[in-house]
Amino acid sequence: MTTVIALGGNALIRPGERGTAAEQRANLRATCEALRPLLVDGELVVTHGNGPQVGNELVRQERAADEVPPLPLYLAVAQTQAEIGALIESELAAVAERPVVCVLTHVRVDEDDPAFRNPTKPVGPFYSEEQARRLEADRGWTVAHEAGRGWRRVVPSPKPLGIVELAAIQTLVAAGTIAVACGGGGIPVSSRNGHLTGLDAVIDKDRASSVLAVALGAKRLVIVTDVEAVSRGWGTSAQEELRELDVRAAEALLPELATGSMGPKLEAALAFARTTGQIALITSAASLAEALAGRAGTRITP
Amino acid sequence: MTTVIALGGNALIRPGERGTAAEQRANLRATCEALRPLLVDGELVVTHGNGPQVGNELVRQERAADEVPPLPLYLAVAQTQAEIGALIESELAAVAERPVVCVLTHVRVDEDDPAFRNPTKPVGPFYSEEQARRLEADRGWTVAHEAGRGWRRVVPSPKPLGIVELAAIQTLVAAGTIAVACGGGGIPVSSRNGHLTGLDAVIDKDRASSVLAVALGAKRLVIVTDVEAVSRGWGTSAQEELRELDVRAAEALLPELATGSMGPKLEAALAFARTTGQIALITSAASLAEALAGRAGTRITP
Asked: Which DSSP letter does residue B98 get?
């Protein structure tokens, strides 16, 4: 059976860290150790986020902009797939004892997706209003103000529709390879005149992972995050970890999670469980073994 | 039959260009059109250089170093594989009408390679002597002075020994996919305590392409460069294009080419022809069709 596991948050960079290669390798070493129970249990595809890494890369692009041309956002996303993919390969191949290969992954989106008319996802460095207005004029960016922090570029976060490299990932997985794919949600593309064209947008990595898991016919989607499980009443005295949610219960919980980072994760897990009739799991890397045994984490069942 | 084609120079960035994504896409559009004759003729693996791109990326890393941690050189190489791989995929998939997939590629080197004791390959921006000495002290870099231009970091250029992702590339090629691999000569790695460890070095992309072509059992290695063919007496009144060189004639010519950029290309082509008994071809993208027909370029025969 194939498991798709989506690595986020602490798995790569921990609070207070700046994202050096050494920090990321050390974190990934611990994360990859935690993946051991999955390695004896069939095929594996690893996806991952890239928030802090693409943020760092966009700072680099801007600070050198007078000397070397900044790359479009979609290529910065590509760059982080390689950065993080190389780090995951180093650490996971040592644990897995089978080949680990990072596949540069493009994800199809629809240029008519309403997200393109309403960019909301902040990316890159903060600017003064004057700088922000100039970038808006010079580069066609959309900028937005974050209270107390300054101005920032905002980009669309469209819905992932399909994985361009799906067949290659399937081929590699069938050959016993662990594929690292869909990093940072994938490079957003659409077709224009028969050419794949990169778009300056970012795709939610859990949504993309869910689309990939469905397309691969995966038996399991595991979303690794910083908390052990999905909770009801988060941050209140009535906070309660939820061990299992069926599709209906998960749907009912979504409005309560709308403002936090757990909402999109539960939504992605739910989409996978509903579409495939298989189980999705949300948990932390440290709790993964227990969660696989049903004693930790949150299982989303069809 | 499988052809490995190594793209260099003008194929990606032309003289006077700064390396914007738009420039690279336009150049690659022309290059990929020129590859058509190879597309009707068996399997294809595309490799490529990354000189200007990794130079640009190293400038970005340095200019933002006070804000975000610079990545080690080996990860900057990885980043350029993704940048250029995404651009090649966009343009080549439109021409090829079959899947094109970029595989993040690591290349094994020996840490005892003499190149590590004598770093000679300049990379990244120029510095004042004072800055260079500080970087030497702070980061353990080796720096060297280039007459009239300033100080620069120099890194080892070790011999490529093997392609870590070889099996994956073989699997993808066998499935009818065009693989983009070994970008920038590959990410240099060695094994330390069972972990692949990235090394701050750069590998010559033609040498790495030759090693890949041999390992794949390729029937042809094509090295695409800016000139139409290998010449004897380059830049003299007696300059003569060489249409065909057997291994012995190629070896005899090497000393004459020692100071130019053609030397390593001919050496890589020669190594392929000698090891495999197959033919290598050195030519420009524009002359590729004629060269395949034996009317242009230089064929290196066993």
From this structure: S
Q: Is the dihedral of CA B81, B82, B86, B89 positive or negative?
A: positive
Residue A18 to residue A27: CA distance in whole angstroms: 13
Mean pLDDT value of segment A232-240: 86
Give the ipTM. Answer: 0.97
- Residue whose entry in the numeric block shows the structure tokens 């107390």: A148
Those residues with Cβ within 8 angstroms of residue A57's Cβ, 6 or more apart along the chain or in another chain: A76, A79, A80, A83, B60, B79
Q: Could you tell me where the DSSP H helices lie in A120-194?
A: 129-139, 166-174
φ and ψ at residue A290, rounded to 5 degrees: -65, -40
Exposure string over A263-284, b if 16+ CB within 10 A, otherwise e: bbbbbbbbbbbbebebbbbbbb
* Euclidean distance between CA atoms A86 and A24, whole angstroms: 11
Q: Could you report the per-residue pLDDT of B91-140, keeping only the tens digit for each?
A: 999 999 899 999 999 999 999 999 999 999 999 999 999 999 999 999 99
* B positions 255-274 inside 8 Å of A (CB): none
- Inter-chain contact A171–B175, Cβ cutoff 8 Å? yes
**Contact across the interface for B68 and A91, Cβ inside 8 Å:** no
Instruction: Centre a 10 Å sphere on the Cβ of residue A66 and count the other Cβ atoms it contains.
Output: 7
